[in-house]
Predict the structure.
Amino acid sequence: MRQALLIEDNGLFQSALRQLLESMGFSTVCAFSRSEALQYAEIPFDIIIFDYVDPGDVSPYQFIRRLQSTEANQHTPLIAMTGYSVLSKPLPVSAVLHKPFDIRVLEGHIWRAIRGAKSNDLLA
């Protein structure tokens, strides 16, 4: 079974996204902040989806650096979600989704990111 890590501080939205991921065949680990999510950094995930703004004290850029420094997730595709129309600087992620977004758009980005990660693994 595929593994997903979902970081979202809004409980209702987190629940809806978890249901989507599980309907797509993912076993999903949820966290309410990036700092909480880092406790799972050594678990290999197929996809990591996180909110750009959260109540924790770890910036999105620190979060990405820490994840990519682990063997388990150095090549795991990341998808960021944000309510901001423009980010202060680019994020090294597969996709940035601006809230509100159609859940089918997220689903498409997840499958494209996973296919891209698998293609990159074959080239390595």
The chain has a mean pLDDT of 91. Residues 21 and 68 are 22 Å apart (CA to CA).
